[in-house]
What we know:
CATH architecture of the largest domain: Alpha-Beta Barrel
Bound molecules: beta-L-fucopyranose
Oligomer: single chain
Structural class: alpha/beta
Low-confidence stretches: none
CATH topology of the largest domain: TIM Barrel
Largest sheet: 8 strands, parallel
Helix content: 10-25%
Mean pLDDT: 95
Shape: globular
Number of helices: 12
Order of helices and strands: HHEHHEHEHEHEEEHHHEEHEHEEEEEEEE
CATH superfamily of the largest domain: Glycosidases
Strand content: 15-25%
Amino acid sequence: MKMKLEKNWTTDNNGFALNDSEVQRYISVVPNENQLTLQEKPFYAFFHFGMNTANDREWGAGVETAKDFDITKIKPEQWVKAVKDAGITGVILTCKHHDGFCLWDTKYTDFNVMNTKIHTDIVKAVADACYVNDIDFGVYLSPWDMHEPCYATPEYNDYFVNQLTELLTNYGEIFEVWFDGAKGANAKAFTYDWKRYYETIHKLQPKANIAICGEDIRWVGNEAGKARKNEYSVVPASLRECESTEKNSQSSEGDAGRLQKVDTMDEDLGSRKVLEKNAYLAWYPAEVDVSIRKGWFYHKKDDRTVKSVRKLFNIYLNSVGNNCTLLLNIPPTDKGVICSKDVSRLKALGEKIKAITANPVIEQSFGELKSDQGYIEFNFAQPTKLKYFVAKEDISKSQRVEKFDLYLKKSNGKYKKAYAGTIIGARRIVKLKGTYTGAVLVIRQSRSTPYIKSVGFYG
Ligand code: FUL
């Protein structure tokens, strides 16, 4: 290799100490088994479906009755097949949204789907369709409940735990439990017994990740499908406190627009500058949640807002390809199906995602880089048109890489800097253009020695 690469982590680590006690403190923070598993299956779907689908609302008012749910048939197999086509591996269903209406056969309230025309346990129907199609199943259960009379009394904690217990006992394995932080600005004040909720989940579904108002998965902080430039998974432990999530969440039915802007988020959650000021750190990776349409629930008038394949693919690259997981909402209609427009976008999206790694030029696994190895060199068998670079850190050893550069070798032997990167984390996907004969990945800055799980170049 003829280029000068004296500036890499093995020489000066960009001016940072490579292995001091602070660095050791950061890299001692690692994912648990459930978080590791989720990073291997980073793309899953939300189904917002329920009373709001029937009433063409986003939140409802809390005064609805079971009769208002006048949907008479659903085709969950079609829902699941549609998302499977996009390469999605899991589904989270809104079993109870803020309106309090329950999509399952619950003992604890009459305000449920068994007292409606459809008389079908919808949670079971969706869970079964997932099972048959080898898709993971998860539950959304809104802590805020505008219908339940005991809301905001101590009894509500029992009610909530009872409902959780039903959902976590009767519907097979649950991969994620999603606790929404949203609550109406005028709703009664109430302190949820999070500790008890979490204990119930740990006992009944030890493999489930708890998201948002939960300890395992962090809300990215907006509903626009955007992630920060650097999404660190090691962050101050205080971010797991539900109060701050609740404060930033939606606070009225019409408030969703605010969250479609990204300036609601703090940009830096995990650089050294932030971590050094915090005594307690946690592994708390970000999940990007976004709807394929304007609303979370289906509205005919939103048919023209279905995001383009290009937009969806960019969201994918900026979330899954940027150390986040992606929770894409696809709302079934009041006819009980997913709209054909959404179905065809999902299919085309799935094809684009598959194409990322369809033509490997080189795929290589590594491990801990040696202390004198500041870069990794790749030589292709012949000049090759490149489209993607995909790198993964071994995150069981924490998130270490803070800066890297990617050089590509031209046919005349010269190198061009194709990408100046920052973090890698679970997965970094970079789009490339042009024909090259080789490449060099230079790690510029790392928290101790990098652990690179794999690097791939694709045509
Ligand atoms: C928000 C809720 O208020 C929306 O209705 C939706 O469920 C979204 C995923 O979370 O906070």
